[in-house]
User: Fold Cold-inducible RNA-binding protein B-like from Cucurbita moschata.
Amino acid sequence: MANRLGTQLFISRLSSYTTIERLETLFSPFGSVSEARLIRDPKTQRPKGFGFVTFQSPDEAKKALQAMDGRIVDGRLIFVEFAKTRGHGVDAASR
Assistant:
């Protein structure tokens, strides 16, 4: 596996009260946020409790991950990790 850091972070266990604006505000001190997304249920439009924040550089993303992983945000303990890219048949080859 290549030791290549991405610029997109996956944030899980978000409160249903957390907004896109709040995500941007929380993560912007660590660098230039190019995108913040919350994933919603397509039927109800309620947040599913996770989202993504994309930075301009891998260094900014790494700083944000180190600072924000395991923090309490809007009353919830959140987890932050680098977003996994979807591979083509990678898992099938390792079985």
